[in-house]
C-alpha cells in the first residue's frame, strides 16, 4: 500500500468511528431502506428485478445494503479498507438478519473470485479515493459475470470547484478541474488526499475495461450535503453528481 493510501485509510478509520457513535440512528435508517434514493431505485429497477448478487465496492458502513436487499438484491458483499466501518456494517446486517457479508480489503485488488457479481454498486464519495482508475475499472469488470452491471452514483468531478456560499455559487480559487488531487476539507478530513479526474477520464476508464456504457447523466443535486450547509451551488444551476450504468458483455 502506498503512503497516500495508507494515510487516507488512517483518516477513514478515525472518521468511521462516527458510524459507531451514531449506530442506533443509522440502524433505524437502514431498516427503513431510505438511504437508497429514488434516483438509484429508478436506474436500478431492471437490474434488481433479476435478484442480483451484489458487490458493494467501498461499502463504508453499508448504509445502502439493506435498501438494495429490500429492492430485490439476493445478497450483498461489502468491501472496504476500514475495519471500523465494515465492523459497524456487519453488526447492523446481523442484527437485521440481512444477507450481507463485509470484507476488509484495500481496493483495487478485491479478494473475491472473478465473476462473483451480477451488480457492482459503488459511489457516494468512493471513486475519489481510487488512485488508478484503470485498475479500478479492470478489477470491477473482473468481478462481474457476463451481463453483469456496474452502477456508479458519484460526486460530479466539477463539484469540488464550487464554493459553499449561501448567496450565490462561486469558483474556489484554490481548485482546478484538471488538478490531479486536493486535500479533503469536509469528511473524512484528517489530511486525506482526494484524487481528481474529469468526467471524460471516468467514462474512458469504464469503456477501456471492456464495459458497455448504458447510461450517463449529470445531476444538479449533490448525493450528500454537509450538515448545517445549504450552498447556492446546490440549487439547480450547476452539476453536483452523476450516475453511470455499464454492462459487461
Ligand atoms: C464516502 S465513503 C462511501 C461509502 C458508501 N458508498 C456509502 O455511501 O456509505 C468512502 C469509503 O471508501 C473507503 N475507501 C477509501 N479508499 C479505499 C480503498 N483504497 N480500498 C477500500 N476502501 C476504501 C473508506 O473507508 C470509506 O468507507
From TrEMBL:
Pfam families: Methyltransf_25. GO terms for biological process: methylation. GO terms for molecular function: methyltransferase activity. InterPro entries: Methyltransf_25, SAM-dependent_MTases_sf. Keywords: Methyltransferase, Transferase. SUPFAM superfamilies: S-adenosyl-L-methionine-dependent methyltransferases. CDD domains: AdoMet_MTases (cd02440). Residues 59-148 form the Methyltransferase domain. This is Methyltransferase domain-containing protein. It comes from Actinoplanes philippinensis.
Amino acid at each position: 500500500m502506498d503512503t497516500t493510501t495508507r494515510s487516507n485509510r488512517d483518516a477513514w478509520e478515525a472518521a468511521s468511528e462516527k458510524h459507531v457513535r451514531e449506530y442506533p440512528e443509522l440502524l433505524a435508517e437502514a431498516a427503513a431502506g431510505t438511504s437508497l434514493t429514488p434516483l438509484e431505485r429508478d436506474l436500478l429497477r431492471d437490474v434488481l428485478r433479476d435478484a442480483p448478487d451484489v458487490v458493494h465496492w467501498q461499502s463504508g458502513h453499508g448504509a445502502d445494503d439493506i435498501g438494495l436487499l429490500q429492492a430485490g438484491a439476493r445478497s450483498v458483499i461489502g468491501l472496504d479498507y476500514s475495519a471500523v466501518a465494515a465492523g459497524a456494517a456487519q453488526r447492523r446486517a446481523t442484527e437485521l438478519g440481512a444477507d450481507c457479508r463485509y470484507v476488509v480489503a484495500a481496493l483495487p485488488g478485491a479478494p473475491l473470485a472473478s465473476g462473483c457479481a451480477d451488480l457492482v454498486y459503488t459511489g457516494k464519495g468512493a471513486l475519489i479515493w481510487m488512485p488508478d482508475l484503470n485498475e479500478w475499472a479492470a478489477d470491477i469488470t473482473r468481478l462481474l459475470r457476463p451481463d453483469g452491471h456496474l452502477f456508479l452514483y458519484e460526486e460530479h468531478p466539477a463539484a469540488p470547484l464550487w464554493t459553499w456560499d449561501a448567496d450565490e455559487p462561486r469558483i474556489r480559487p484554490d481548485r482546478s478541474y484538471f488538478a490531479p488531487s486536493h486535500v479533503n476539507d469536509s469528511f473524512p478530513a484528517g489530511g486525506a488526499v482526494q484524487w481528481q479526474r474529469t468526467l471524460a477520464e471516468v467514462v474512458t476508464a469504464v469503456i477501456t475495461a471492456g464495459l458497455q456504457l448504458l447510461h450517463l447523466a449529470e445531476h444538479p443535486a449533490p448525493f450528500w450535503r454537509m450538515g448545517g450547509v445549504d450552498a447556492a451551488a446546490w440549487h439547480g444551476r450547476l452539476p453536483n453528481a452523476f450516475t453511470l450504468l455499464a454492462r459487461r458483455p
